Amino acid sequence: MTETPPRTGVSIALPRSQDPPDADSSAANVFTVRDLNVYYADLRAVSDVNLDVRQREITAFIGPSGCGKSTVLRCFNRMNDLIDIARVEGSVRYHDIDLYDPRVDPVAVRRRIGMVFQKPNPFPKSIHANVAYGPKVAGQKGNLDEVVETSLRNAGLWDEVKDRLDDSALGLSGGQQQRLCIARAIAVNPDVLLMDEPCSALDPIATGRIEELMKEIQSDYTIIIVTHNMQQAARVSDRTAFFTAELDEDTGQRRGKLVEFDDTGAIFSNPSDERTEAYVTGRFG
Questions:
Q1: What is the pLDDT at residue 115?
Q2: What global pTM score does this model have?
């Protein structure tokens, strides 16, 4: 990243997606990534990633384990900042704002760009308190009941929990807990949702409900999902990025590399790279 000295008392306000996007305009790009490299200490974990994420689309990252999918995902909301030995180089722009400019507040980034993790992680609090937590931390005053209800409705969970909002969230099923985590993420009114293997711990029925939910809320959010499930990527995403892990001849270590990024239909029916074809047809990975 270009190191811009911080200005005392000055911060950069993050813009929001405008509705509807102009399909022929660069403004439709929520993220523009150029020459992205991620290091853990001296290990280059991901090299030379270039891609654009468009507004109100679902973008899937697929590829074998260890290929850097989740590492790249965490660059979009600066979660890698929380790892002492992590270093990000290159350019990650959000609505043309450099996310790694020192004047950008990473906490503000994570409010605008929410994240749902692989394993449901509700707080050991009531269902209501889980959803209300983010708005409270953000300083929202007054009665949060409307925010909680709207978020739970948008997550497809309201009808299942409306009569037990004071019950512990830990008493919900795995699929319900994951939808609660989605409700918690959208309660702070984000622009983007990052989902890191959100269905890997769920049964097929719960997985199907999460997939339906993603399609239902797509008109309101830009979504990026990391998944090992190629059928899931084919079902829900508009565009797909295929990553692989290759051997660095200089260090003898494996590093992630973006092989191909295209419309999902093209990736699964007519990929341009033989490595992509080998992966999506099950010949390796």
A1: 95
A2: 0.90
